[in-house]
Amino acid sequence: MFTKKLAELIPVDQVFTVPQIGLAGSSDSDLLDALDSKGIDVFIIIDGNIEFQQQFKNRKFGTIVIRAISNRFLDLQPLETKLFEAIQLVDRGSIIQIP
Length: 99
Fold this sequence. Notes:
Radius of gyration: 12 Å
Structural class: alpha/beta
Oligomer: single chain
């Protein structure tokens, strides 16, 4: 999942983690349905398998999958620029992988 510390790197007005919006512990399909209903623009996740397990094509949000050595902040911090670029480029129902 997306970490609160990494969220601080993203220069946009509103960034929330899954626990912050009350969806911690949700199944992947329930989480994605809830994100659709909450009007989320971009979903960022550190989970390389979700894109193969769930349907994203008709979602109301774009998805960014971060592929890193680990989910430790020190491993994710170097991806800050690529992450910001991906946020600007991702479209509804699409997936962008970084790096």
